[in-house]
Every structure is written in C-alpha cells, then in structure tokens.
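Progress report, Aim 2. The chain analyzed during this reporting quarter is listed below.
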Amino acid sequence: MSGEHQVDLTAMRREYIKGGLRRNDLTSEPLALFEHWLKQACEAQLSDPTAMCVATVDETGQPYQRIVLLKHFDQHGLVFYTNLGSRKAQQLKHNNKVSLHFPWYPLERQVCFLGVAEKLSPLEVLKYFHSRPKDSQIAAWASHQSSRISTRGILEGKFLELKQKFKNGEVPLPSFWGGFRVKFHSVEFWQGGANRLHDRFLYQKEGLGWNIERLAP
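Predicted structure tokens for the chain:
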C-alpha cells in the first residue's frame, strides 16, 4: 500500500473523560463491581454488552482469541457455551487456563478475568440448550465448529435439511455441544482517565477473601 493511502494511526487519539475509579468506589469482592458495571453497560444500550474476548493457548504456546457471549455468572464462575470440537474447547482440554476480557469502549471501561475453565455438567448444558431458540439449536447440529468447509452453501444446506428433520419435534442435545465455567482468581478493572492517567485496580484471590491493589496505567 502506498503512503498516500495509509491511515495516520499516530494522529488518532482522544481524551478519556467519562470519569475515574477510586478506591471508595470498589466493592470488597470483584463480582459485585462487575455486576454493577455490566448493568450500566446494558442500560447504556451498548451493542452486545455480554460479549467477551476468550483467550486460550494451544499446545505450541500460540495464543488464540475470539468473541463469545457470557451466559451466566455467580460466585462459582462465568459461563459460556460452545461446540466441544471447536478450537477453543480442544485447547482448553490441554490447557484450561483462560482469560476473559470485556471491552466496554463507549464507557471507557475494560474488565479482565483470569482463571481456569471447567466443563459444565450435562444437566446444566441440557437446561440451557433447550432454552435457546429452535433455529439456534438446529444450528448447533449443522455446524461442526472450526472444521474446514469449502462453501457457505454446504452449511446452509445442512441447516435446511436439519430444520426439515426436526420441524415437528424436539431438537436433541448434540453430544458434541457443551459449556464451560471459568473459575476466576484474578480480576482487573480499567477506567479511562484524562491525560492517559487511567485507573486500574487488580483483585487477586487470597484465602477466602480478595487482595486489592491499584496499578499504574
């Protein structure tokens, strides 16, 4: 690409002025603050406020990232669902360490969880699977996630075939579909600040409680 058509990335900058994050704003444990921020992201009508970047590492040490939707959270962890034959699921089988990142840019906020992923029980998966729209259930059968396909038409054709097959009955849970609960031990909250003096607080699990430290931006 010639220089005259390049975007000048060095000139792209803005100030972060939506507010700070002070120690008095923090909760004693991270999930309460996360829930408060998530609620504000929903109220602000952000696109996909539950979208999170899930980072895993393969057997060679190569990191991979993808956007997945958070479907549940509580003191036991954060939950998402996926095809168990997918790249992320296979990587978690060999290395269950995972990072979850929530990029709420319009609010000048980020939250990052570090933890380990554990497979959900069949009962939990079944309950959620049947709560999904029927077309989403059928799509789970149609797509062998991360496998190579030559054209989109193959995927669409399989979907239509299965839609006809299950049109009058319940869609069974595929044996290759499941979910993970990420049990977290570290949570970082980032709030943009003026003059690049951003506010960062790190919660780290310590016994039955949490140690909280402010980090330099």
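DSSP finds five helices and nine strands in the chain. The longest strand covers residues 177-191. These observations will guide the mutagenesis work planned for the next reporting period.
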